[in-house]
């Protein structure tokens, strides 16, 4: 599984919709960035893509 954040689109910790809605806590806030911290836990549920307001998150099977 590959979880990626496009930082040209991501609104950062002020948004954090992915951090707050991922059931597996894959995302974390790290300083002024939202990062993919636990990619191995991802179950490919698609919630992060659904809640991201800018389309910055992509989840793709490897
Ligand atoms: S697809 Fe689901 S489990 Fe994976 S990072 Fe997104 S919200 Fe979390
Ligand atoms: S939901 Fe999208 S825009 Fe918001 S912090 Fe996550 S990746 Fe960035």
What can you tell me about this protein's structure?
It comes from Methanocaldococcus lauensis. The chain has 62 residues and is of the alpha+beta class. The chain has one domain: Alpha-Beta Plaits (2-Layer Sandwich), CATH 3.30.70. The protein has helices at residues 17-21, 47-51; strands at 2-5, 27-30, 33-36, 57-60. The strands form two sheets. It has a two-stranded antiparallel sheet with strand order 1-4. The protein has a two-stranded antiparallel ribbon with strand order 2-3. The N and C termini lie close together (5 Å). The model has no long low-confidence stretch (mean pLDDT 96). The protein binds iron/sulfur cluster (SF4) (2 copies). One iron/sulfur cluster (SF4) binds next to helix 2. The site of one iron/sulfur cluster has 15 residues, from helix 1.
